[in-house]
Amino acid sequence: MPDYELITILGPTASGKTPFATALAAELNTEIISE
Questions:
Q1: How many domains does the chain have?
Q2: Tell me: the pLDDT tens digits for 6-29?
Q3: Contact, 29 vs 22, CB < 8 A?
């Protein structure tokens, strides 16, 4: 997998962004920054 500096996840309210971001962060061994 290529190295990424930033991954942005966008979508409507209650569409599963947080569970997806959590799983992706675990897979990439990184953290979530949410604002």
A1: 1
A2: 899 999 999 999 999 999 999 999
A3: no
Annotate 1-35 with DSSP letters as a single string: ----S-------TTSSHHHHHHHHHHHHT------
Give the integer Cα–Cα distance in Å for 4 and 12: 24
C-alpha distances out from residue 3 to 15, 28, 34, Å: 26, 10, 20
The whole domain housing 28 covers 1-35
Residue 7: closest CA among 15, 31, 16: 31
